[in-house]
UniProtKB/TrEMBL annotation:
It is found in: Cytoplasm, Cytosol. Keywords: Bacterial flagellum biogenesis, Cell projection, Chaperone, Cilium, Cytoplasm, Flagellum. Belongs to the bacillales FliT family. Residues 89-110 are annotated as: Disordered. May act as an export chaperone for the filament capping protein FliD. It comes from the Bacteria. This is Flagellar protein FliT. InterPro entries: FliT. Residues 93-106 have a biased composition (Polar residues).
Length: 117
């Protein structure tokens, strides 16, 4: 019974963490905390017994409800991160084009070779 309550407690903390507002200032800390909680959960999953009592079954039901919400929020969080990475790459390449606009122009343009016979 105690291990199921511990698992529920970690799941609730994870749910709170993914539901908090993520800003530029706290993004890295949120990701680290989420990763730690996911690691703790994965360690406990291997130790979980089959639910036998009604209280364990209700705990499992609560964990499953929270898990659906957590998965949706994590998907949303990581989609946002992917979009920001894409924008950063695009901004980097446009900055490089702005600082050196003739980088892509071939250096042999306009070259003329004269051969005498």
């Amino acid at each position: 019974m105690e291990i199921w309550q511990q698992f529920l407690s970690i799941t609730e903390r994870l749910s709170q963490k993914v539901n908090q507002k993520v800003t530029d200032d706290n993004r890295e800390q949120v990701i680290v905390d989420v990763q730690q909680l996911l690691d703790q959960r994965s360690d406990l999953i291997n130790q979980l017994p089959q639910p036998e009592t009604e209280s364990e079954k209700s705990t499992v039901q609560r964990v499953m409800e929270l898990d659906l919400d957590i998965n949706q929020k994590l998907e949303f969080l990581f989609d946002g991160l992917k979009g920001e990475l894409r924008n950063m790459r695009k901004q980097k390449s446009s900055n490089q084009r702005y600082t050196n606009p003739y980088q892509s122009v071939a250096s042999y343009d306009g070259m003329f070779m004269d051969r005498k016979k």
